[in-house]
Amino acid sequence: MSLLETTDLVKRYPVRHRLTRxxxxxxxxVDGVDLAVDRGETLGLVGESGCxxxxxxxxxxxxxxxxxxxxRFDGRDIGPLREDELRPVRRDLQIVFQDPFSSLxxxxxxxxxxxxxxxxxxxEPTEPVEDLLKRVGLKPEHASRYPHEFSGGQxxxxxxxxxxxxxxxxxxxxxxxxxxxxxxxxxILNLLRDLQDELGLSYVFIAHDLGAVRQVxxxxxxxxLGVVVESADRDALFGRxxxxxxxxxxxxxPVPNPDVERGRERIVxxxxxxxxxxxxxxxxxxxxxPKAADVCAVERPVLREIAPGHRVACHFPEERTP
Amino acid sequence: MTxxxxxxxxxxxxxxxLLRQPSAAVALVVVVLLVxxxxxxxxxxxxxxxxxDSAAVDPALGGLPRGAFGGISAxxxxxxxxxxxxxxxxxxxxxxxxxxxxAVLATLVSVVVGxxxxxxxxxxxxxxxxxxxxxxxxLMSFPSLIFMIALISALxxxxxxxxxxxxxxxxxxxxxxxxxxxxxxxxxxxxxxAAARALGAPRRALLLREVLPNLTTPxxxxxxxxxxxYIATEAGLSFxxxxxxxxxxxxxxxxxxxxxxxxxxxxxxxxxxxxxxxxVLAFNVLGDAVRDVLxxxxxxx
Lengths: 322, 301
Prior knowledge:
The complex is a heterodimer of chains A (322) and B (301).
Chain A (H helix, E strand, L loop, with lengths): L3 E13 L6 E15 L4 E5 L6 H8 L7 E6 L2 E2 L5 H8 L2 E4 L13 H12 L7 H7 L16 H13 L5 E5 L7 H18 L2 E6 L2 H7 L2 E6 L2 E7 H7 L3 H8 L6 H6 L30 H5 L5 E4 L2 E3 L10
Parallel strand pairs in A: 3-8, 3-9, 6-7, 7-8
Antiparallel strand pairs in A: 1-2, 1-4, 4-5, 9-10, 10-12, 11-12
Chain B lengths: L13 H6 L2 H18 L1 H4 L12 E2 L5 E2 L2 H4 L16 H37 L1 H16 L2 H11 L5 H29 L2 H8 L4 H9 L4 H24 L11 H8 L7 H29 L7
Antiparallel strand pairs in B: 1-2
């Protein structure tokens, strides 16, 4: 049994009329997502902006309530739990946010920030603030400072220390490095990996940077407009992707070798993703898909296994090496 | 890894940045002097503000003060009141007590009510926000001055000072509430609140520990800026005869009683008028400066 598992997860937001507040439609942000994260594993969740990956993150950590479907953590459906019932679950399920500064209260010192997890859980601190700081590579004397006194990378280390204070089993990293300088990104990714080995953590790693995802993930799921279009082990996804959207994503990653870069094929998708207010019928990717056929407009492709552990939602899957 | 000290505007203590502006420094000195004057009133003047001095006025001239400039003398440094001969300096000093106390207490009432209701409305939204929002709209569109005059005249036996504090604060809190509501709304959707929720923080902690500390700056700014308005309104109400009741001295009352004498004894009109003008100006300049220092978005160059 997986540590975290979602089945047919759906989140729709009502759109209301400005004056009458009547429901005039809905945004379908997440539309039937199945994911599974095993113990000690890192699931990379990729996709472009607005594809629903962050909403999935908010549902997994119950910052938002699913419209339907289940989120099973350690076998228990946490979707319908009330906030007081969730509190003990939250010890095992933590988040690292994208922007380290906006996720740290500017009026709290590092000491207050790092003792908040215990205070909010009604627990005696099991780990001194100084030890938490050392674990993420900061100094004990940083405890009395305020977030604005740190660099972005250091602030993100504080965010990580806070997420780890309660010794969680799963940490959701929502674009944890995309707000940081490239040189700092690698440090943070290495820190996350070291902590995973040390503490036996599982991660859900949300990102749009395929390089970072490749570095940290054991499995990868690709999302497009609220659905998972392909999921596979890291090497299978980066080596033998089968969905046309994944092909396009992978071909957009620049290769740091000019000769290879010049010679390789780039798949450029035309247009923008359709509005989640009114998603296309059938396959959601068909409006931009180079392979789209009549069947794609009629029948929604389901995720099916084309190789062990490799699942694709496409009528015309084709394994390709990028 | 070391943390390099970066000097940005936010690192310079706010008070020092305030004092860098000459106008703000002068305003702060004036305000501090006024407050000291009000607090230590009994030590500054030995004359009682209600003590008559018939020797200082000339009954032959209809009670006009003896001597130039409203009877300024060593005994009465700012002259005396016509007819009664009460000491103007004593009345100014004790009047400052009343004016400042009412303005500060009214500000306190409006800040407490405005912060609590604004915070709750902005944080919870929905029905709570709709109810608080309509209440604020109602109070802000109300002809408050006319209502105050009517209410205070309708309750002749009430403690005027307490009533003024309640009425001024009661009509003033929506201005605080509106700003707090907007800020609380933004903060409640912020990532650090989401982080606290993910840690299992109860709602009370989200409101009091996460959101409230981030509201101190805007609240301090509106509070400083609302004090001169309350001072002026209190003076206005006293001028109209529905403010502080005699014999308790008040600047507005003094100005009102000076009106019939403006030609014969202009000093009696100019002295309380000048004090009111300088006080309101100093608080306004200081309020603007506090806003500039604490709120980087409103920097004026």
